[in-house]
Amino acid sequence: MEHHAIVPVASVAGELLEEAREHHSRRAAKTLASTTSIRATVIAVASGAVLADHDAPSASTLQVIVGRVRLHTADREWTLDAGDLMPLPPQRHGLDALADSAVLLTVALR
Question: Which of 9, 35, 63, 71 can bridge 85 by disulfide, Cβ–Cβ 3.0-4.6 Å?
């Protein structure tokens, strides 16, 4: 992908959601931009799918493109709807798809 190409995020999200609905894992992902300092990835998760607890990158945000997700740590949880964006908590976290959803994960790389 060209370094300065405009990416139709909503279109990519729609394609990935179709793929996620068919895949046994109920999810699909595609990195849209990657440089030495940042990476942006769309992750589609079909309703009911779970991204198990995992460690957080040092600096990252999650934006819901379509759908609704529940982000949770051991002691907190947040419900995010389409258009919502939040910095990811620094502790281990997981994600549950409350509806067919696609999120944009943006991570600062070291």
Answer: 63
